[in-house]
Design brief:
Elements (H helix, E strand, L loop, with lengths): L13 H8 L5 E10 L5 E9 L4 E5 L9 H12 L7 H9 L8 H22 L3 H4 L12 E2 L5 H13 L4 E4 L11 H19 L4 E5 L7 H11 L6 E3 L7 H10 L3 E4 L5 H10 L5 E2 L8 H14 L3 E2 L8 H15 L6 E7 L7 H11 L1 H6 L3 E9 L5 E9 L3 H10 L11
Parallel strand pairs: 4-5, 5-6, 6-7, 7-8, 8-9, 9-10
Antiparallel strand pairs: 1-2, 2-3, 11-13, 12-13
Helix pairs in contact: 2-4, 3-4, 6-7, 7-8, 10-11, 12-15
């Protein structure tokens, strides 16, 4: 869309001229695509189509049951088909405020995906990346941390050293061993101290290490006992120390915590986030873009957090093969650069035993002609073996300016759609 030169026109005519230049679109269809991966986990997407042939995609969070997602998408589609997809705020209000009762988790997950797809359409229609529509790039790069794992302290330390050697300056892990529920609580705490000590011995004191309790510790006093025991090794933060149903108790806990509290990924909309902030229950706010209400609501939550001097760590549910490619899109949107940048995508094998190498090779075979035509480099640069003989993950490197095209080709590939839905 060409910019207007106000010197050439009568001011009274500018609105009319602007309206003529504005791209008019109508939503023609919204569909929900569900597939399953090798670990029997559902991959749930939304695809919104327009009369101009432009379409957008979004992802639905797995709050369960995933079989409800198509029903919600169909429900929202009744209100949105025929609307202008670029009127994102209006469309969001039609869906959310049009509901007689507050929308729950499954509805907001579907609405979040639709909202993402509308931003996608708008960016394509205006030939602009989404971050430019939101005010432009703020940072040239974003620091990333890596999740480390290990059954024993030695395995955890080895994984930490491996990722630091790749260049990561921050790590995250569960503060408790995988079998901590089988231990006496005091033994579980002592084991956690041994695990953190091993990490520090392996990577030193200059690497930040955060902990994610996954809301698995129900008693606040146990969280305090565990955190106090780990303070010797300077934890970066404690994520989801308790469940989020009781925001008041989270506030009480945070006031006693000796390190930062990170939480919010299980909350929906700005209203629940505001309850958490009002109770002083968080230092690092973690809205989940695929459930909080999409990018539209995520922005508002970020503004509220900014007004309260809080750090925002926007989360995403992305994890599998096609979604790993989405990580490259998110990385590109956040950094503002795609051309000549390297994107490293981790492809995880499922518990069913399918080797990640097979997934990576399949991806390359499916799009070999397209990759060659677009001169997009594609290589498998490393393999990581798990406890069993099979390869558990592969790292793929994609380089070039056509990463976006590969992403949309993947999402548009109906071979991802399968009939089986795991409820």
């Amino acid at each position: 869309m060409e910019p207007l030169d106000s010197s050439k026109y009568n001011p009274n005519d500018l609105i009319t001229i602007q309206q003529r230049k504005r791209i008019k679109l109508k939503i023609t269809n919204i569909e929900c695509l569900i597939s399953t991966d090798a670990s029997a986990s559902n991959l749930v997407y939304v695809k919104t189509k327009t009369d101009a042939g432009i379409y957008g995609v979004g992802e639905v969070y797995h709050v369960g049951p995933d079989a409800a997602s198509p029903i919600w998408v169909e429900y929202f589609a009744e209100q949105l088909v025929g609307q202008d997809p670029t009127e994102i705020e209006r469309n969001w209000a039609l869906c959310y405020q049009g509901a007689r009762f507050p929308i729950g988790s499954t509805g907001l997950a579907a609405l979040s995906a639709i909202d993402q797809s509308l931003w996608d359409i708008t960016g394509k229609a205006l030939d602009k990346p989404v971050y430019e529509l939101m005010g432009g790039r703020v940072r040239d790069k974003i620091r990333a941390y890596w999740d480390i794992h290990g059954t024993t302290a030695a395995e955890l330390a080895e994984d930490a050293r491996r990722e630091v050697d790749k260049g990561f300056t921050a790590l995250k892990t569960n503060p408790l061993a995988p079998n901590w529920r089988e231990m006496r609580w005091n033994d579980a705490v002592a084991d956690s101290v041994a695990r953190f000590k091993a990490i520090r011995k392996a990577v030193g004191d200059d690497i930040d290490v955060g902990f994610d309790a996954h809301a698995a510790i129900f008693e606040p006093i146990r969280v305090l006992e565990l955190t106090d025991a780990l303070m010797e090794f300077n934890p970066w933060f404690m994520e989801e120390p308790i469940r989020m149903e009781n925001r008041h108790e989270m506030g009480q806990l945070r006031n006693k915590m000796p390190c930062a509290v990170a939480t919010g990924e299980c909350l929906y909309t700005k209203f629940e986030m505001w309850e958490l902030i009002r109770e002083n229950g968080v230092d690092i706010l973690q809205p989940e873009v695929c459930i909080v209400g999409g990018l539209t609501e995520m922005r508002k939550i970020a503004f509220i957090a900014q007004a309260h001097d809080l750090v925002v760590d926007a989360l995403s549910a992305l994890k599998n093969l096609a979604i790993s490619v989405e990580k490259a899109r998110v990385q590109a949107l956040l950094s503002g650069e795609v051309d000549n940048n390297d994107c490293y995508l981790e492809v995880h094998a499922g518990a069913g035993g399918t080797e990640a190498q097979d997934w990576a090779q399949m991806l390359r075979r499916m799009y070999s002609k397209w990759i060659e035509k677009k001169k997009c480099k594609f290589e498998i640069i490393s393999e990581h073996r798990g406890d069993e003989a099979g390869i558990k993950s592969s790292t793929i490197k994609i380089q070039g300016e056509y990463i976006f095209g590969l992403i949309w080709e993947l999402y548009d590939d109906r071979r991802l759609k399968r009939t089986k839905i795991h409820k």
